[in-house]
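Pipeline run #58 for the internal structure catalog. This entry was flagged by the ingest filter as a single-chain record with no existing model, so it goes straight to prediction. Upstream metadata was stripped on purpose; only the residue string is passed forward. Reviewer on rotation: M.T. Logging verbosity set to normal.
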Amino acid sequence: MKEEIQTYNDIQTSDDKAICNVLTQTIDNELTEAESKIWHAHPVWFLDGNPIVGYSKQKAGWRLMFWSGADFEEDDLNIKGKKFKDASIFFTTVEQINTKDLKRWLNKSRDIQWDYKNIVKRKGQLERLK
């Protein structure tokens, strides 16, 4: 686990830290080729500079967001972005995390990508990469 993400996880409450650690460990194990860092104050994983997955604390709980998740065709990723192709799921306890589902979504995140890296250059227009 990257030190800056470990530090982020460590400052959470014990219940929240457990959620963060499961998410981080699973993402790190599945997306071994990804670069991870704190981006806009939250842990995010990138493939070739393109944001893929990240998590953040919100009122509803911990939001796990896949930037291209709207195209995964996964019922549990039911919080869809209005402007882009993102989709999310919320967790309030570590027991809610189904690692089998999470691994499947992570594999899809590698295979289904929209080009967020160049969205500014394209004036807000997304293009499908994979």
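catalog note: The beta strands are 35-39, 42-47, 50-58, 61-66, 79-80, 87-91.
catalog note: The CA atoms of residues 70 and 82 lie 10 Å apart.
status: ready for reviewer M.T.
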